[in-house]
Amino acid sequence: MNYRDFLQKVIYVIINPIIKGMIRIGLTPNIVTALGFVGNLVATYLFIKASLAFPYEDCKAYPFIAWGGGIILFAGLFDMMDGRLARMGNMSSTFGALWDSTLDRYSELVTLFGICLLFIKAGDDWFWMGVTTFAAMVGSVMVSYVRARAEGLNIECKVGLMQRPERVVVTAVVAIITGCTLNLWWLAGGMILIAVLANITAFWRIAHCYKELKKKDEGK
User: Fold this and answer.
1) What whole-number distance in Å separates Cα of residue 76 and Cα of residue 175?
2) Which of 30, 57, 112, 197 could bridge 137 with an S-S bond, Cβ 3.0-4.6 Å?
3) Looking at the predicted structure, is the pLDDT value of residue 11 above 70?
4) Quick one: DSSP state of residue 160?
5) Using one digit for the tens of pLDDT, what is the confidence trace for 148-159?
């Protein structure tokens, strides 16, 4: 069992009672997915509020950054609960899978946009960290895109170091630490990590698909 499967089982033990409560009150997976997206919009708003405090009142910015990170972490739970709710409540649907994937992409892009804006507004010294955050946005989208294209070609493609759960946790944790320490370098380090590893993961998946497709072509 890998670490992701182990953590997933632990989290399921914690959230299963909540899922049962959701079923009793009639919440659907699509509503839970939407609530998670709304949470990420709130986090983005807080990052934008933080950006407006830079560069002259940066001390006011850090609490917004910390709260933004906390809300991203909380919203990430909804991302786990919608799928669990669909399975436990027998409410799985093809549209639900599409809805979940689409709002996941929106959630990640809007929060990273907020962080990108924050760095650009933080002053000239942080401009290139805004560019790095944009690279993290590109890598995040491409990791998901390559997997989607691979699955369209009947290839299982889950390889890589920086999948969505890891990206969400890194973003949330470094934002919280940044807000608590009043040190923007924590957030910068997180964005560098995602930018590098997400893009490596995207090309890793391309290489994986190349090998799998080559095997299929040779087997014809």
Assistant:
1) 14
2) 112
3) yes
4) S
5) 899 888 888 888
Output the CA torsion 99→147→167→185 (10° steps). Answer: -120
In the chain, the N- to C-terminal Cα span, in Å, equals 34
How long a stretch of residues is the chain? Answer: 220
Contact 120, 133 (CB under 8 A): no
Q: Say which CATH superfamily domain 3-218 falls into.
A: CDP-alcohol phosphotransferase transmembrane (TM) domain (1.20.120.1760)
Q: For residue 209, is pLDDT > 70?
A: yes
Provide the 8-state DSSP code for 30: H
Note whether 151 and 211 are within 8 A (CB). no
Is pTM beyond 0.85? Reply is yes
pLDDT digits (tens, 9 = 90+) for 148-203: 899 888 888 888 888 888 999 999 999 999 999 999 999 999 999 999 999 999 99
So where are the chain's domains? Answer: 3-218
User: Is 19 strand, coil or helix?
Assistant: helix
143, 170, 142: which is closest to 158 by C-alpha? 143
φ/ψ bin of 92: left (φ > 0), alpha (ψ from -120 to 50), beta (otherwise):
beta
Q: How many helices (H) and strands (E) does the chain have?
A: 7, 0
Using only the alpha carbons of the chain, give its radius of gyration.
19
Indicate the DSSP class of residue 182: T
Q: What is the number of other CB atoms lying within 10 angstroms of the CB of residue 92?
A: 12
**Location of structure tokens 């650009």:** 120
C-alpha to C-alpha distances, 68 to 7, 51, 65, 100, 152, nearest whole angstrom: 23, 12, 5, 21, 35
